[in-house]
Structure formats: C-alpha cells, structure tokens
Amino acid sequence: VEFSPFHEHWVAVGTAQYFGIIGNGQTVVMELLPDGSLATMRSFDTQDGVYDVAWSETHPNQLVAACANGHLKLFDVTTSDNFPIQSFAEHTNEVSGVNWGLVDRTSFVSASWDHTIKLWHPQHPASMQTLRGHTGPVYNAVWSAVEASHVASCSGDGSVRLWDLKTPGRPVCDIAAHAHEVTALDWNKYNPTQVVSGSVDTSLKVWVRAYVARSRASMPCMDGYSRLSLYPNFGCVC
Asked: Which SUPFAM superfamilies did the record assign (predicted)?
C-alpha cells in the first residue's frame, strides 16, 4: 500500500490470490473520499500476485508493481487498456519489494528472492545495475532519502546491507542484523546514518552506521514484520 506523492487522496494497493503463493494478482488505484471510504479508480490485472507497489516520483500518473513471477510492470492510470506501458523481466524469482528513488527521482530499485537487487530506469527494459552479495531472498531494498546513491537491503540470510551505487561491486556495510530472516527495513528520512530493521524473530532494531553498525535499540513484537516505516520526527516506527 502506498500513497501517491502527487495526489494526496490516491492510494495504490498490490493484491494476490491465496496469500501470494499461487494465482493471479491485481494493482488497484483507489481514491480516498471525503467520507473516509475508498473508491476504485483503476485496476490492472496480472497473471501472478503483486507483492509491492511504488509510485513514480516524476510522473503523477505512473506506478510500478512487483510481481510473483519475477517481473516488474509500469502502469499509467490514464491509459484506456489493462496493459503496462513497460515491463522489466530480469529477476528469476519473486520480486518482493520495489522502491522509487527520493533524491534523483529518475529510477527505482527492486528486491528479489533470486538474492539480487536491481536498479532500473522506467524507459529502459534492461536493468542499469545488479547488486549481488546476499545469500538468501532479498525482501526489501530502500533508497536513502538524503544520499542519491545509497540503498539499504534486508534478506533472509539475516543481514542488512548498505550499498553505494557508485561502487556497486560490494556493500559498504554488511550487518549481521538478526538471528533469523530480516523481512523489513527503512531509512530515517532525516538521518542518513540510521536504518531500522524488522525480523521474523519478532525483534525490531535501529542501526547507526557511525557506530560501526551497532544496534542502538531493540523492540520486541509478538509477530514478525513484513513492512515498516520510520516516522522521523519523534523516532516512531509503524
């Protein structure tokens, strides 16, 4: 689920049949009405489940969907048909996360169960970079909101890795973050050294790169995390 950065009442939702294990999917764009209800504006069908969605940071009517068949699809809500305006088909397993860059705003990254992270430009079907190093499924990859070339990723190998796209051969920081799979993470939007991670081991940890990636806080949860968002003003996590 993601709100549009251009239209304050637009919400994009990725859906899947049978918990995303098998079956079709759909990308749905909804409008939040004054009475608090949601009305469907557009929907785009896919042959596989949609695990994540991200709005374009440059085009107000476009969004990208991460699909269970390893594809990413770029949709435009103003088109008259159900087809994507661009498809990206390099991942060999499920694409579990997609995130649009907040600084240069021209590209997006995808995280996949094939252990890789890929950098894409919406006008080119071939990826611009592939980041390798994780030894398990990559569940999410998130751009820094401050540094244009910095991306953080989390994986089923228990690690959180920080990457600099200017030197993509290896991560600039490799954190053995949790004892079990790390399924969620986010940057602090106003502190480029701080990342928060969540795991199926039910723990939530805040990491500060300036302290050689030591955990500064750990907060338990009764269940694991699938997504999280760091609210910077008061240090809150959703």
From this structure: WD40 repeat-like (SSF50978)
> Which structural domain, as residue segments, surrounds residue 141?
133-238
User: What six digits make up the tokens of 238?
Assistant: 């959703």
Residue 234 has pLDDT above 50, yes or no: no
Q: Which of 192, 208, 180, 216 is nearest to 142 (CA)?
A: 192
Quote the distance between the C-alpha of residue 217 and its chain's center. 23
Overall pTM > 0.85: yes
Domain check: are 156 and 79 in the same one?
A: no
